[in-house]
Amino acid sequence: MNPEKTNTFRHAEMFGGRTHRAMPTSASNGGEIIFRPFDAANSGVRPPFSVRKLRHPLFSWFGLRPIIAQHTRAEHDALLRWVCDRRTVVEIGVAEGASACALREAMSPEGILYLIDPFHLSRVPLINTLRRAAHAAVAQFGACRVVWIEQFSQAAVGNWREPIDLLFIDGDHEESAVRKDWDDWSRFVVPGGVVLFHDARVFENGWPDLTYGPVRVVNRLFRDGEAIEWRIVEEADSLIVVERKEG
Ligand SMILES: C[S@@+](CC[C@H](N)C(=O)[O-])C[C@H]1O[C@@H](n2cnc3c(N)ncnc32)[C@H](O)[C@@H]1O
């Protein structure tokens, strides 16, 4: 699927302190997303009111501001392209749910989206606004079944048996944790299936540097030739997509 040619989702992009609707309105459920860069320190643009004052996930949960993505528009478009028509999709690290929205939007409606995040950082665990914001966000996009796994990925893999078509690694960013997610989960990815890593590439005006855990893991596995069954198929801002070779 080329998202530029579809009319099935709606998202917003921020320029010069304004939210600019870059895509047509979704035929589905009308969610709206603000992409990076929204940080004045990095981008030189003034963040919109919703980002400056309504940053808490409570405001997203109540629908008082758009969903704030931790990724760029180019990364979002790459997620949409690579998940298109895939049926068993796993995301490690959901947060407010912006990337999960992209996955659910474009994957097969007959598929299952597994979302793994312990949502452990809430100061009021009983209310857990981040988890509620994520559930509310994901409900606005796509149609497939969603299975929420509220565990650390290292624990969740103990019960995992399914072949995976697309795996998105965006949980704990410590180098050892990223490497463990790769070692634990990549063996379930089918030939022709893909793994996406976020914050895994140094790019112009971007935030990752060579010391970032995902950057180090990706460089060792795919640029230094450790993972010979895999090849890099796309690089978009901080996102790296690798495909398991067939045969
Ligand atoms: C960078 S955010 C994810 C952003 C999200 N993918 C997006 O683009 O909107 C990282 C998330 O990973 C979660 N997390 C941290 N360690 C984890 C682990 N071991 N397994 C699963 N999730 C984890 C955190 O709770 C946090 O919500």
CATH topology of the largest domain: Rossmann fold
Mean pLDDT over all positions: 86
Backbone CA Rg: 17 Å
Largest sheet: 7 strands, mixed
What general form does the structure show?
globular
Low-confidence stretches: 1-29
Question: Can you walk through the features of this model?
Answer:
The chain folds into two domains: 3-71, no CATH class; 74-244, Vaccinia Virus protein VP39 (Rossmann fold, 3-Layer(aba) Sandwich). Mean pLDDT is 86; it is low at 1-29. The chain contains nine helices and eleven strands. By secondary structure, it is an alpha/beta fold. A seven-stranded mixed β-sheet has the order 7-6-5-8-9-11-10, with helices on both faces. Helix 4 (73-83) packs parallel to helix 5 and helix 8 packs across helix 9. The chain is 28% helix and 25% strand. It is globular, with a radius of gyration of 17 Å. The chain has helices at 40-43, 49-52, 57-61, 73-83, 98-106, 129-138, 153-156, 175-185, 213-223; strands at 12-15, 18-21, 33-36, 67-72, 88-92, 112-116, 145-149, 164-169, 189-197, 230-236, 239-244. A hairpin with a 2-residue loop joins strand 10 and strand 11. S-adenosylmethionine binds next to strand 4, helix 5 and helix 7.
